[in-house]
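Researcher: Predict the fold of Signal recognition particle protein.
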Amino acid sequence: LSDRLTSVFTSLRSKGKLTEADINATAREIRVALLEADVALPVVKDFIARIKERATGAEVAQALNPAQQVVKIVNEELIEILGGETRRIRFAKTAPTVIMLAGLQGAGKTTLAGKLARWLKAEGHAPLLVAADLQRPNAVQQIQVLGERAGVAVFAPEPGNGVGDPVQVARRSIDHARHAQHDIVLIDTAGRLGIDAEMMGQAADIRDAVRPDEILFVVDAMIGQDAVTTAQAFLDGVGFDGVVLTKLDGDARGGAALSVRHITGRPIMFASTGEKLEDFDVFHPDRMAGRILDMGDVLTLIEQAEKAFDADQAAKMTTKFASGENFTLDDFLEQMMMIRKLGPIGNLLGMLPGMGQMRQQIDQIDDKDLDRVAAIIRSMTPGERDNPKIINGSRRARIAGGSGVSVGEVSSLVTRFFDAQKMMRQMAGGMGIPGVPGTRR
Ligand code: GDP
Ligand code: MG
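Model: Structure tokens for Signal recognition particle protein follow.
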């Protein structure tokens, strides 16, 4: 997907104008890209229609170049469909606020209940976790363990609490929350492996008994296209106000997010990204748009990179990339050293548009090579490093002699540098680095 889009955007960038044929070609590519990301076909069709309409409209005539325009439109539309701004939980006027979770078995409801409870507690609330899944043998125990870890009280079906009857348990939990001063009640419910009338009925009964302020539909991002049928079934059977996507730590492209959002019209509110309680965040439409387009989770990259080397250096590198100007051999060397220093984190550079190719180039250079490259560059005069174009045959021979390598090696380094420089310019002239302010022009 990434390669495909990179090539689309690159070919657009090299042209001056966006013609109707360009738009159609781009639309075709984006269509394939979205389908590869597991977006449902009807959603893809709608999306493409919107893109075409906007691209052929007046906006194209404005300041940006055509390629920038298309990238901008695709990205904006994705963010728009994914929900624009993040929606927060709506709290009830009178406590407790009742939140009910629904979804298939294995979607990650119970895990999410624990995460949400922990998060709400950190936000200053006093949530109560309710074990209303009496289907799975150890479901109650599972939620008790989670409650303990999150430091949150659990309402479990004990004698007097409505043993064996999830509707009863849910109803009683509300009274209990009132007495025990809990301002939020989080009700975990049972799921089935497939959509099932009995399960749907039970969820609807719980809903009617507790009248939740928010029903959250929990869906596994890995199920791809099936997300649409499942979401539709829950919308019809129980109804819901918001969506939680789980298992986003897997390699799902996130097409499910786009489909569910588009088909149900309900906002995606939270994202679950692992088995641990802290693997959880409010949903960020812009990041998901980037993921679907595979433009790279640049925010993550920047965060990780900042941890690995100092922020000053990172800022310098970013501006350098962004400007694409005055990219010298010294910078080239510094960049290679930095990527070596980053080690495995250097792999993250593959997440940046255009950087995948850069990374490949650098991967071809092993550590011993890198030392030779450093020696060659250090044998150059400052003038040569700033402006390698002046490095002619006789200069090459001198540099080769000074650094103890062959003239051929000097030449190949210079060629590699020019390639890198060209790429920098392309990046700078094109879409910039998404998420990094000031890099898009
Ligand atoms: P439920 O049946 O809907 O209650 O699902 P569970 O909460 O029991 O989760 C099912 C399985 O998925 C468990 O093994 C969880 O540890 C795992 N799980 C839940 N959420 C995530 C997630 O965001 N990422 C990963 N990798 N695993 C998850
Ligand atoms: Mg469960």
